[in-house]
Amino acid sequence: MTGVTRTIALLAAAGCAGCSGKSDATLAATDAAIVSSDGADVTCGRNATPFVLPVSARTPNDEFTATLTASEPPKFGMGDNAWTLRIDGADGKPAAGLVFNVVPWMTEHKHGAVKTVIVTEVGDGVYEAKPINVNMPGIWDIRVEFPGGDGGTPLRAVFSFCSSAR
Ligand SMILES: [Cu+2]
Fold first, then answer.
1. How far is the CA of 38 from the centre of ligand 1 (A)?
2. Were 66 and a residue from 31, 142, 144, 154 both cysteine, which residue would form a disulfide, CB within 3.0 to 4.6 Å?
């Protein structure tokens, strides 16, 4: 039970840390990653997807599958993150020549990131997306948004990861 108790204490202490404009040093002190006995990072509770690569997210009807194959730095956390994404189409083959957006969104607080993510095709359905900037701890939904077939509502694949102090 020790791990659970520590988690609750941390959440109570952290509150909405980033929203009040605390310094990075304060954030780092209050957001030390909590790792359970099985090695999972439970800083955000167990609602986040473990950051173990490769990991995939799909659009609602499997029109696209986004697979995060590499990240720099290798742990998702505060600051700028650069991702390598492979995008497969409905046929399961790499989708080249796509134009899509990557939009970080913190659902819990209803806000996005302070930097725009630039997506660049590397080739053969592989794309680089950066900077994915994280400026506060917690669960970040990284939305990969593809143009809808009708040119309207985007098709969205979402990764939910827990950002930690590095
Ligand atoms: Cu926030």
1. 27
2. 144
114 assigned to some structural domain: yes
pTM of the predicted structure, to 2 decimals: 0.75
Which domain range does residue 85 map to?
48-163
CA separation for the pair 127, 151 (Å, rounded): 22
Phi then psi for residue 108, to 5 deg, are: -55, -35
What digits encode the pLDDT tens for the residues 90-141?
Answer: 999 999 999 999 999 999 999 999 999 999 999 999 999 999 999 998 999 9
How far apart, in Å, are the Cα atoms of 161 and each of 94, 116, 142?
A: 24, 18, 8
In a domain? residue 39: no
Query: Could you tell me if residue 32 is inside a domain?
Result: no
CATH number at residue 88: 2.60.40.10
Q: How many domains does the chain have?
A: 1
Of the pLDDT bands very low, low, confident and very high (cuts 50, 70, 90), residue 1 is very low
Q: Does residue 133 fall inside a structural domain? A: yes
